[in-house]
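Section handout 9: paired folding examples.
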Amino acid sequence: DMCQYILSKITADNFVTEFNRGVFRLIVNRIQSGNDISLTAFSQEFSQEELGYITAYVSTILPETLHKSALDQCLQVLYTEHQRQSVKNPNQMSDDDMLDYFREMGSQKKG
């Protein structure tokens, strides 16, 4: 099950923006509850502008061709962006923080 695979890799906290975290949570909740996840099902949850954003994003993905290797590539982009957004100013990092940061970056390159 692709949903379980995704949930084993990420949580809503991996997303950079609150909007994306909210979309992720809603989709996961609807899938786990057995509810419809079509764009029309989200019309009561989001504004027209937000639905437009979601629609534009979804239209760039072809679910029929989504497989684990493509998903893993998308997840890697998500991890990298989250890491980039959460990095402190190097001048404010302790030596231990800096070492942890470089270890994390090294493990991402290897994996």
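Moving on to protein 2 of 2.
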Amino acid sequence: DKNAVIASYRAFLFEEDPRFFYYSAFSERAMLVEGWGYMSKEYQKEALVRYEDMKRLYGTCDRDIAVMLIRKYDIDYLVVDKHNNQNFKFNKDQLLILRYRNEAVEIYQVV
């Protein structure tokens, strides 16, 4: 689906360098937040809010918070970056379905 909302908790190429954009480049899809270092200042504020929400989503153990954030942005897919040791801490059962996995990423679809 070309209009799917895809989210990840990856925005930095290197520490303090928010220019990571590989997920959107290779998937040819728009990401909820990614690489705001290339954005104009007016859009960077919203990108930072979204990044903080993704930080909360990927770090919470509370399923209700996870559901609230997924619904807030109407997220369809979530990308887990295994190279950065990411994993969801909340219970994924009946919320996310694993759709793709390789040594670098896992992609989950929101049910």
